[in-house]
Sequence to fold (217 residues):
Amino acid sequence: MRIAVIGASGWLGGAIAREALARGHEVTAIGRDPDKLATLSDARAATVDATDAAALPGVIGGHDVVVQAVTDRSGSSRDTIPDTTAALIAAVPAAGVARLAVVGGGGSLLDTNGIRYIDRPDFPEQYRVEAQAGLRALELLRAAPAQLDWTYLSPPPHDLVPGDARGGYTTRGDDHAVTGPDGHSAITSGDLAAAMLDELESPQYVRRRFTAGYPDA
Fold:
């Protein structure tokens, strides 16, 4: 596959780009930090304003799938996340790309009692704005035209930690987190990237949100 990864200079986007390269896919790494993009030596590097729906087709055209893995830690609104999703909803079909895959947030997942983690009193306040931005992106996808082939991957609401793939994760395609016996949820960035590539190679969650985590977390 030809995969464009927007946010490849970030830690999650970079993990996805490396996993795709390791599996033999052609990767275009799109990001804001040229030095980090340069570490993906087997990828083609590109830059674009990811919120510019008019500019995106010139960069993402010719790919089979676009992966959005952006964050915005520079301000209090985190508008970059939903703004990028909105731009891609328009740009992906305009560019003739078959699929859009978004790495979103885990705060809008449901706990074992059916309560969104973001609505619980113990949800970390420092992650609330970003979680709300991720939820806005998901809502945009769910309202997108039926012709758009999309998927949205939520990391666990507890521990998404840097690290290599270890295997042993499971996925589920509803709004509930994958949790261990004690209700905890976790995954490494390497395994989250593997879960995304598994989905791109063998689609199971078309026009759906899914999540991944360790059942023994």
Observations:
- The mean pLDDT is 94.
- Residues 3 and 196 are 12 Å apart (CA to CA).
- The chain has six helices and ten strands.
- The longest helix spans residues 80-94.
